[in-house]
Design a protein that fits this description.
By secondary structure, the chain is α/β, with parallel strands linked by helices. The protein has 20 helices and 8 strands. The chain has a 5-stranded parallel sheet with strand order 2-3-4-1-5, sandwiched between helices.
């Protein structure tokens, strides 16, 4: 079996690394640490195919430490013990550099087993993860490490790597190899910032190439077919999902229907209906709320319809809900009111329920006292002044009318009946 193209063209120096200029450009903080031979413990955080393993290999090549590699998806506690057993032996005279890929799959005990040797400097850890390390990496280990975030690589930065891969394939092909002018751009754009995925796409393109007039020709049509949907970064329950959910919610709140439809479409492309439905339902109360109270009913109907239809038809009611929420007047008076009330309850600011509001059967001694509750519907305008909050909170205001037409109309109505309070 031939050597994978992605490994064959893996950069050997920092200048060859694609992307990550914020870390590796001349003067970049990570580059300076590497060039000075730092033995700092590091956590590389970012999507797949963005250079984390490549940079770790470059660091290993510049140190006199014995390099060990583990992947947390398959490694066990015994594997760690075997590596640590080499400390202070002839097998690791300069100490150990452990590259631990996908550290988020190590449990707390496995991560803790590294601490003692990280503390005394006999083991240098470079860990990589595609998930937020502040959620998945044990705090004590994280406090002994520096986190560097690797970002998706732009198509402009990926394209030279794609062209280099094409040249290599051209050089080792038995038949003349040519490609349509648009192929490098198509592959670089479709890889979603994953350089490894782009190189693998080149390899597959060559393997699937058709012979025309004694030549292998790579076409844009084939490039699109092999890379379809690959630009999507999505892992249900992972950072990408929560980032998309956040972007959808904030676009609705920001009254941008175009952005809302964009992020909704990205969810639809992955086949995830549940997450955008939850965000749409939440936004109806959190961001629109009392400015257009009917929104929650309409959105609920849209969500129910979408879940009954399934994809692809579900796109229509969900798009309707997104446009409605994005273009509706906004009010956060609901979330502000309940947040303030809940904060008081959490802080213990409660008090006894006023006697007037207690259950009429609250007294069981046979010596019932007059409750004193006044039934609002028995009074003009269905309202009568009486205390509803506990004594300790009787002057507290949680709800404040928003500045939209609906809430201001309600405010005027009650001010006329109650008088300004």
């Amino acid at each position: 079996m031939g050597h994978p193209l992605a490994d064959e063209i893996r950069p050997k120096s920092l200048d060859e690394v694609v992307g990550q200029r914020h870390l590796l450009a001349p003067g970049g903080v990570l580059r300076r640490l590497i060039e000075k031979g730092s033995s700092a413990n590091m956590v590389f955080y970012g999507p797949s195919g963005t250079g984390k393993t490549t940079v770790a290999n470059i660091i290993a090549a510049q140190t006199n430490k014995t390099l060990h590699r583990l992947n947390a998806t398959t490694a066990s506690l015994q594997d760690i013990k075997d590596i640590i057993a080499d400390v202070d032996t002839l097998l690791a005279p300069g100490g150990i550099l452990l590259y631990l890929d996908e550290i988020q799959y190590f449990n707390k005990k496995q991560q803790q087993s590294l601490l003692e040797f990280m503390e005394n400097g006999k083991l240098t850890l470079i860990a990589s993860t595609t998930e937020n390390p502040y959620f998945y990496v044990y705090g004590a280990l994280l406090s002994r490490s520096t986190v560097f975030e690797f970002k998706p690589v732009s198509p402009e930065e990926v394209r030279p790597a794609v062209e280099r891969a094409l040249k290599i394939e051209q050089g080792r092909s038995d038949l003349p190899l040519e490609w349509e002018e648009s192929v490098p751009v198509t592959v670089a754009t479709a890889c979603g910032g994953d350089v490894r995925k782009a190189i693998n796409a080149v390899e597959l393109l060559v393997q699937a190439a058709r012979i025309r007039e004694g030549k292998l020709l790579l076409t844009e049509e084939d490039a699109q077919a092999l890379s379809q949907r690959s630009a999507m970064r999505y892992d249900r329950g992972g950072d990408a999902m929560y980032d998309l959910a956040s972007a959808l919610m904030k676009s609705l709140r920001g009254s941008d229907p175009d952005a809302a439809l964009h992020y909704l479409a990205r969810f639809l492309e992955t086949g995830d209906l549940v997450t955008p439905c939850r965000r749409l339902l939440c936004s109806a109360s959190e961001d629109v709320g009392m400015a257009y109270p009917q929104a929650v009913s309409i959105v609920k109907a849209c969500v129910d319809t979408a879940m009954q239809l399934g994809l692809p038809e579900a796109q229509l009611p969900l798009a309707q809900a997104a446009i409605l929420l994005a273009t509706a007047p906004k009010s956060n008076s609901v979330v502000e009111g309940i947040s303030a009330a809940w904060a008081d309850v959490k802080a213990g600011r409660t008090g006894d329920v006023p006697r007037e509001l207690q259950n009429v059967h609250a007294d069981s001694t046979g010596l019932e006292r007059e409750q004193g509750y006044r039934y609002p519907h028995s009074y003009p305008h269905h309202w009568v002044r009486q205390q509803y909050l506990p004594d300790s909170l009787k002057h507290t205001r949680y709800y404040h009318y928003g500045d939209n037409k609906t809430e201001q109309a309600a405010r005027a109505h009650w001010e006329k009946i109650k008088g300004s309070e």
